[in-house]
Amino acid sequence: MHPFSELQLAQLLEPALQYNDANGLTGLLVYDEGRFFQCVEGSPEKLAEIWKSMQRDPRHTDVQIMGNKCVPLRFFGD
User: What does pTM read for this prediction?
Assistant: First the structure.
């Protein structure tokens, strides 16, 4: 696992923000020393699409789902 540079993180983040905005997704992304922690909020259909995409992407390794439940309000809505 190689750490990302600030430029690499920016290149990763910009299209992700555009995709999330276009698909009604919100959440939190934390990066630390080559590892990511992510919380994604959205419709069950869109979350299933994201999960399938992550499973096909070789950059995602050692993925652990820590929770999956419906909540009445988004924690990271804005």
Answer: 0.83
Token pair for 33: 């020393």
CA 50 to each of CA 7, 19, 32: distance values in angstroms, whole numbers, following the listed order:
23, 10, 22
Residue 17's alpha-carbon distances to 22, 26, 57, in angstroms, are: 9, 9, 18
CA dist., res. 6 & res. 63, Å (int): 23
pLDDT digits (tens, 9 = 90+) for 8-57: 999 999 999 999 999 999 999 999 988 999 999 999 999 999 999 989 98
Token pair recorded at residue 47: 């979350």
Residue 65, SS3 per DSSP: coil
